[in-house]
Design goal:
The chain is mostly helical. Helix content is 55%, strand content 0%. It binds a DNA duplex (21 and 21 nucleotides) through α3 and α6.
DNA sequence: AACGACACCAACCGCTCCGTG
DNA sequence: GCACGGAGCGGTTGGTGTCGT
């Protein structure tokens, strides 16, 4: 794109680094009221001294109501491994199959845990069966080797000759993915400006912050969203509280 | 208790994609 | 068709917590 591009924001005039609870509240409050049609102008309108990109990232990776916090379950990890085998480093693609998990989170988990785990297990059980050399001197090679093995296992489990998509309901784990995916439609609603629904379990820090001055109870982190429909009163209370916090 | 190594994760950076005029 | 701007994505970094010595 031709002449290069202007930076997304004036870095000398925006705050950087970790977000404070107050900033989080401002962002949540603004998005709940007005949505996020335009990330670039959002900081200005909401009174945040942040780059639009930073706001977007914070919202998507942390504040979004449907973000699931906490450790990945074994099933989720396995799913990530399999999806990575299919999609490669398309984290957003993988994330779309794991509701509540963000691309950033999946990426982190992959780099910190799963990749290592794969390399380790490839070292203990070399995939000699398919005549691929798994030299220890090249970790990426080892990883590739293992991926190949997983791929085989995966395609086998999905059933021979069938594509991933056409057989996903046959595999219990893929079935699980499907169940997750069913929530996607609901989750995507969150991005719509006119929606006024705030689940109470998205961010421990925020809720801890809120709890410190109010007794708004957050529901358990792993309880799913079915109970949320009756939370409208809670939402109003929450807004009132947030507004008072911001004053 | 102090220190270093390692692990984890939030956030940033820069690039690409896509819509619009 | 082209230029531009905004959004999204993936790679990387830096801060912080944890563990081992």
């Amino acid at each position: 794109m031709g002449k290069g591009r202007a930076p997304c924001c004036d870095k000398t005039k925006v705050k950087r680094g970790p977000w404070s609870p107050e900033e989080d509240l401002k962002l949540i409050s603004f998005i709940q009221k007005f949505g996020h049609e335009n990330w670039r102008s959002l900081p200005k309108q909401s009174g945040l001294l942040r780059c639009g990109k930073s706001c977007r990232l914070r919202w998507i990776n942390y504040l979004r109501p449907d973000v699931k916090r906490g450790n990945f379950t074994a099933e989720e990890e396995e799913t990530v491994i399999k999806l990575h085998q299919n999609y490669g480093n398309k984290w957003s693609r993988i994330a779309s199959q794991l509701p509540g998990r963000t691309d950033n989170e999946i990426k982190n988990v992959w780099h910190t845990r799963l990749k290592k785990r794969l390399v380790q297990s490839s070292e203990t059980s070399p995939c000699s069966s398919n005549s691929v050399s798994c030299g220890k001197e090249d970790k990426s090679q080892a990883e590739g080797c293992l991926n190949k093995k997983i791929s085989q296992d995966f395609t086998t489990s999905v059933s021979s000759g069938g594509s991933y998509n056409s057989n996903q309901e046959d595999d219990p784990k893929i079935g699980l993915l499907f169940k997750y995916s069913a929530f996607n439609d609901i989750i995507q609603e969150v991005d719509k400006p006119d929606l006024l629904e705030i689940p109470f379990d998205s961010d421990p820090d925020i809720w801890g912050f809120l709890d410190s001055s109010n007794s708004l109870q957050q529901s358990g982190a792993n309880e799913f969203r079915a109970e949320q429909e009756s939370d409208e009163d809670e939402v109003k209370k929450w807004f009132k509280h947030m507004e008072s916090e911001l004053e």
